[in-house]
Amino acid sequence: MCTVIGLLFILFMQLGS
What we know:
17 residues; mainly alpha
């Protein structure tokens, strides 16, 4: 679960940039 949340967080960060 933590892995999924981490991946989603990275994706959101990249999209936000």
